[in-house]
Every structure is written in structure tokens, then in C-alpha cells.
Design brief:
Elements (H helix, E strand, L loop, with lengths): L2 E5 L2 E4 L4 E8 L6 E8 L6 E6 L5 E3 L7 E6 L4 E6 L8 E9 L7 E2 L3 E6 L1
Parallel strand pairs: 2-11
Antiparallel strand pairs: 1-3, 3-8, 4-5, 4-9, 5-6, 7-8, 9-10, 9-11
Length: 118
């Protein structure tokens, strides 16, 4: 059974940093493209950052320079380092995985809450 478990969320002041982790089980993360999404209150879910099996990364423009996605295939874990956090970054952050041959992320975690206070 595939499981993605996020951790590292919490309450932080504006300008602060957090590091999210997504531990994958039931799959070999090295053959999956991984991504972080988020859903802010009253808004649709949006892509934050993605990383391919080869380590290529992609970021939404508003996150570039502030967020860094990385992966440790030996630990089956993907990370999202977030810095210079803003109140508008407040959201539930979700980890997702998809095989390289599929365009849709078909495995999702339950999410971790990130709250940025002003």
C-alpha cells in the first residue's frame, strides 16, 4: 500500500523558515516524479514545486528563490525548504507522486498545515 506522509508543518512568523518532509512507503521514490502542492483557505489547490527522478526542479514563479524542493532517494523522502515565508503562504501543503509515464499525480499525502503569522 502506497503511503505519503508529510511532516514539518507548523506556525511560524513572517520571514521565518520551515522544512517540510514527505516520507514515501510502498513505492520506490526514485522512479516517481514528486511534487508539493498547497491549498490555501478558500482557494484551489496549486502546484508549489516539482522534482523529476533525475533531480530537475520546477517552481511556481511566486515561490522561486524562496522555496527549494529536493529529494533523498535512499530515504524515499522529498523535502520542501521554505524561507522568507509570508502570510499568504498559509495553506495545507500536500506531497504527491506520479510515475514518469503518467501525467497525473495519482498518489497523495494527507497534508501538513503551515501557518504564517504577520
Amino acid at each position: 500500500q502506497v503511503q505519503l506522509v508529510e511532516s514539518g508543518g507548523g506556525l511560524v512568523q513572517a520571514g521565518g523558515s520551515l522544512r517540510l518532509a514527505c516520507a514515501a512507503s510502498g513505492l520506490t521514490a526514485s522512479i516517481y516524479n514528486m511534487a508539493w502542492f498547497r491549498r490555501a483557505p478558500g482557494k484551489q489547490r496549486e502546484l508549489v514545486a516539482a522534482i523529476t527522478t533525475g533531480g530537475s526542479t520546477n517552481y511556481v514563479d511566486s515561490m522561486k528563490g524562496r522555496f527549494t524542493i529536493s529529494r533523498d532517494n535512499a530515504k524515499n523522502t522529498v523535502y520542501l525548504q521554505m524561507s522568507s515565508l509570508k502570510p499568504e503562504d498559509t495553506a495545507v501543503y500536500y506531497c504527491a507522486a506520479r510515475l514518469t509515464t503518467i501525467n497525473t499525480y495519482n498518489y497523495w499525502g494527507h497534508g501538513t498545515q503551515v501557518t504564517v503569522s504577520s
